[in-house]
Amino acid sequence: MRKFYIVLIFFASLLVSCSEVEETQPDLGYNYQPLAVGKFWVYAVTETIYFGEADAETSHYYYRDQIQSDYSDVEGEQVFLVVREKSLDNENWQPEKSYTMKISKGSLIRFQDNRFLVALVFPPHPLKRWNGNVLNVDQDDDFQIQVVAQYQLDDDQYQDVVKVVQQEEDDRIILRDNRYEVYAKEIGLLESYYEVLNYCSRNDCLGQEIVEAGRFIHLKLIQHG
């Protein structure tokens, strides 16, 4: 009987130890981009395409991204298929494209427009840097995290926000390249900002910041679920 109680106490202490380990598991921050079939995000989009000097076209529309299915890839990792639809009035939707997302080796990997992007790394820490282009054959593209306690987007305020600065450059002579993404805990991608412009570099316009070509596209979350 004494042996029985000793064994019982041993297993009880083991269970307590295991529960304590589970309770102290580190928060890796994966919920900055929740991934589950059925989740969706609706964005208001502003886009400007520059065709030449004094020749640009601006449009406003909406994107709705929804995770429609998941599957296991050749590496045995869970991949989520996202279908993007486009609307001019936020009511009538047409298919636009699809892309995939997965969390692999502590990184959020997005495959879109035939390119891989290491969009976010976990756990997100201030000043953490990585090559967002590491899975492509192109040149390095260094990303850096900024952790923001509060973030204002139009009339909405969000807590626990991470901003990924992809590029922040404007030489005011040849190139402007400003790109960032913002992620909110338990929500996902909150905002995406892309502005890549080429300035006129001829002798008669050098340094005047006259846009010769480029694209600006800004996504802002207006609904999710």
Give the strand order, joined by hyphens, for the main sheet: 6-5-4-3-2-1-12-11-10-9-8-7
- H/E element sequence: HEEEEEEEEEEEE
Task: Give the overall form.
Answer: globular
| N-end to C-end Cα span | 56 Å
- How would a textbook summarize the main sheet? 12 strands, antiparallel
How much strand?
Answer: over 45%
How many H/I helical runs?
A: 1
Q: What's the Cα radius of gyration?
A: 23 Å
The quaternary organization reads as single chain
Write down the domain tally: 1
| SS-derived structural category | mainly beta
On the 0-100 scale, what is the average pLDDT? 89
Low-confidence stretches: 1-12, 14-22
Percent in helix: under 10%
What's the total count of β strands?
Answer: 12
Explain this structure to me?
- The longest helix is centred in the first third of the chain and has 22 residues.
- The protein has one domain.
- The protein is globular, with a radius of gyration of 23 Å.
- A twelve-stranded antiparallel beta sheet has the order 6-5-4-3-2-1-12-11-10-9-8-7, with no helix packed on it.
- With 225 residues, the chain is mainly β.
- The N terminus is likely disordered.
- 10% of the residues lie in helices and 58% in strands.
Fold blueprint:
Layout lengths: L1 H22 L16 E13 L2 E18 L5 E10 L6 E11 L2 E6 L2 E7 L7 E3 L10 E12 L2 E15 L4 E10 L3 E12 L11 E14 L1
Antiparallel strand pairs: 1-2, 1-12, 2-3, 3-4, 4-5, 5-6, 7-8, 8-9, 9-10, 10-11, 11-12
Pick out its properties:
225 residues, mainly beta, 12-stranded antiparallel β-sheet, 1 helix, 12 strands, 58% strand, disordered N terminus
